[in-house]
Write a structure and sequence with these properties.
Blueprint (H helix, E strand, L loop, with lengths): L9 E3 L11 H6 L5 H8 L5 E5 L7 H6 L3 E6 L2 H4 L6 E4 L11 E6 L9 H14 E10 L11 E4 L5 E11 L2 E9 L4 E8 L4 H10 L2 E6 L6 E6 L2
Parallel strand pairs: 2-3, 2-5, 3-4, 5-6
Antiparallel strand pairs: 1-10, 6-12, 7-8, 8-9, 9-10, 11-12
Length: about 230
């Protein structure tokens, strides 16, 4: 079944495109950064992780290599075809209700910045539904200058260029972000909606769904460990 592109999201480039404008082939090419080390340092060894929005497994595979058990969720079957070694579930995150709880629930890829408040609330409720009472939720936030340091460009050592070309307000606190990815043999663009959240707004959004910050895991406060507030 072909999934419809979400309103405000667009993409160009070769290969399958997900409803939020992520190109499967692009994400299969992108290298993984320091995230697996951040995660491994923040949770118990051997923890069972529910990874929401796993994509092609860029973080799934390094976490498996570090001895974690991972249940990987994505709404794109084309993304999940690239995942190896984990239990995979094809589902929108907002609708997920496995009747199971996990040591760690992970919501990365800046998904907490969904343009729709209702979508963000649904994402966080899925986290709360699936985290064990003594477990934690790991969340990746946008950097605090993410929408002001624009345009910006980064040339990766692997030989490709990433550009954040623009971040334009479109009303109600939402911004439309346009990104370009240029490889020697191919190129992709992605336009998506993002709702910036200050530290206070972020913590308030967590509190509304029954979570509280346990620790900011990185100096830039991009990675956060939250726990149930009850």
């Amino acid at each position: 079944m072909e999934l419809k592109m979400r309103a405000g999201h667009q993409a160009t480039g070769p290969g399958a495109i997900t409803p939020d404008g992520c190109a499967v082939e692009l994400y299969a090419r992108l290298p993984i950064g320091p995230e697996p080390e951040v995660i491994a340092a923040a949770v118990p060894a051997g923890a069972h992780i529910l990874e929401l929005g796993c994509g092609v497994g860029r973080m799934t595979h390094p976490l498996l290599e570090r001895g974690f058990t991972v249940t990987a969720v994505d709404e794109s079957p084309e993304m999940l075809e690239r995942v190896r070694g984990a239990r995979t579930i094809c589902s929108p995150i907002e609708d997920l209700d496995l009747g199971e709880t996990y040591d760690v629930v992970m919501l990365a890829s800046f998904l907490v910045h969904a343009g729709s408040v209702e979508e963000r609330q649904a994402l966080l409720r899925t986290c709360v539904r699936h985290v064990a009472p003594t477990g934690c939720v790991l969340i990746q936030r946008e950097g605090e200058d993410w929408h002001t340091d624009v345009p910006r460009e980064r040339v990766d050592p692997a030989g490709f260029t990433v550009r954040i070309v623009s971040s334009e307000p479109v009303g109600d606190g939402v911004r439309s972000v346009h990104a370009e990815y240029e490889f020697p043999d191919a190129g992709w663009t992605q336009t998506f909606l993002s709702r910036p959240l200050t530290k206070d707004q972020f913590e308030e959004a967590l509190a509304e769904e029954g979570l509280k910050v346990d620790a900011y895991l990185t100096e830039d406060r991009i990675w956060v460990r939250a726990i149930p507030s009850d």
